[in-house]
Amino acid sequence: RGSGAGAPVLINPRFLLVWAAPLVGFPKMLSAMPCLLCSVQINEINGRVCVCIANMLYLESPAGVGFSYSDDHNYATNDTEVALVNFLALKEFLRLFPEFSSNQLFLTGESYGGIYIPTLAERVMEDSTLNLQGVAVGNGMSSYEMNDNSLVFFAYYHGLLGDRLWTQLQNACCSDSCNFYNNPNPNCTDSLADVQDIIYSSGLNMYNLYAPCPGGVAQRLSVERQTLVIRDLGNSFIQHPSSRLWKQVCRRSVRLDPPCTNSTPSSLFLNDPYVRKALHVRAAALDWVICSSEVNLKYGRLFLDVRKQYLKLLSALKYRVLVYNGDVDMACNFMGDEWFVESLQQQVEVQRRPWLYDDVDGRQVGGFVKEFDNISFLTVKGSGHMVPSDKPVAAFTMFSRFIKGQPF
Ligand SMILES: *[C@@H]1O[C@H](CO)[C@@H](O)[C@H](O)[C@H]1NC(C)=O
Ligand SMILES: *[C@@H]1O[C@H](CO)[C@@H](O)[C@H](O)[C@H]1NC(C)=O
Ligand SMILES: *[C@@H]1O[C@H](CO)[C@@H](O)[C@H](O)[C@H]1NC(C)=O
User: Under CATH, what is the fold of the domain 15-144+303-404?
Assistant: First the structure.
């Protein structure tokens, strides 16, 4: 089983950061990590030479996404198997490149990486030959229930729903608290269908509410050059009746595009024969596409939340954990992850406060951070789903402080 090559950037050989995948079937080339970004950003802004702080190992996982492939062409997999193969890939990498094995090791990822990273960490922490120091998850899927429940509040309070729909939702979905996740009341599911239409089908960029939609407003489902194109990765409202119907309709040859994402430049670049050669991509590897519909549609989602994994990591009292969220993302919105971190009920070390970073216009508020024992929740103000792409300078500052164990 092949796994895609990474693009490690080597500066200070003290750290090894593993960046594992995003939304299911969606390889992580889109949101470049700080080392790739800083060479541009910091040069432009400060006229300084690129200062990189870690070596990066990118995992294109599970097999079937990006350049990774499987010899038996079987791309059905699930959360447990992915955690295992990511662990084995990491072990294999360190066997082949033992010079990295004593480095401090951090595991990071975003989006569906919210599942991949804690489940991988659960295995890594049990292997004493791996020098695990910490885990960082960006705009992660931590709990489907909290993600859906918070999104409806997020949408209303960001001006997307209006009072009529909000009143209907309150009446049909809420009593003491609101259940927008698996509410059996048909009036509630009807109103939630309207919410989903607004968030996913009206043309908003769900990955960044305030960014335009590259390529213009598109349908959630369309036919282009005789290919069915789906623009829905199936991570939200999985309990809603329409989502289950959706999944049945989609079991055939389709192209899966994340909505409002222009994948043309990355596809052209990565499929260039010289680039493939430079990355040592095997001839047997698939063409690089932004999303694998096959992997996505056959994927077995086994964890509805990763509470158990986080509690296990925290109970070791020796790992640094960071949950960070761009605060204008609607795929994995900040509030759902904030609720999730709060629900772990760790002791508060430093109350929620703004965190600052230096930018061209001087010192700026990067967002807010609340520090608990061994785990911090941090927002990145004005950033969407892909924090390093949207806010590279703030993201670089955040990652530096995280890796070095400095206060945010
Ligand atoms: C996950 O996938 C593995 C490998 O295909 C399989 O053995 C296992 O039964 C699956 N687990 C579940 C719960 O489906
Ligand atoms: C759904 O709404 C209709 C019309 O407002 C109402 O008559 C009905 O009782 C509601 N159903 C439930 C289960 O609340
Ligand atoms: C985790 O918390 C414990 C208890 O407060 C502390 O002793 C330890 O140094 C912390 N570990 C890290 C990595 O921050």
Answer: Rossmann fold (3.40.50)
- What token pair was written down for 309? 């994994």
- The percent of residues above 70 in pLDDT, for the chain, comes to 81
Looking at every residue in the chain, the average pLDDT score rounds to 85
Q: Which residues pair with 378 in a beta bridge?
A: 324, 369
Ligand 1 near 74 CB (within 6 A): no
Whether 15-144+303-404 and 146-261 share one fold: the answer is yes
Query: Band of the pLDDT at 84, cuts 50, 70, 90?
Result: very high
Torsion of CA 18, 267, 214, 204, to 10 degrees: -50
Of 167, 168, 170, 187, the residue with max ligand 2 atoms within 8 A of its CB, to mutate for a pocket test, comes to 187
C-alpha span between 245 and 234 (Å, rounded): 11
User: Of 239, 82, 282, 60, nearest to 148 (Cα)?
Assistant: 239
**In this predicted model, what pLDDT tens digit does every residue of 330-345 receive, in sequence order?**
999 999 999 999 999 9
Catalytic residues: 111, 329, 385
> What pTM, to 2 d.p., does this model score?
0.86
How far, in Å, from the CA of 153 to the mean position of ligand 2? 22
- Lowest-confidence pick of 152-161, 215-224, 294-303, 371-380: 215-224
Atom 7 (ligand 1): residue with closest C-alpha? Answer: 81
**CA–CA separation, 264 vs 284, rounded Å?**
22
Kindly identify the ligand whose nearest atom is closest to the C-alpha of 315: 3
Pocket test for ligand 1, best of 24, 70, 80 (most atoms within 8 A of CB): 80
Residue whose CA lies nearest to ligand 2 atom number 7: 187
Report the topology of domain 146-261.
Rossmann fold (3.40.50)
Question: Where are the chain's structural domains?
Answer: 15-144+303-404, 146-261
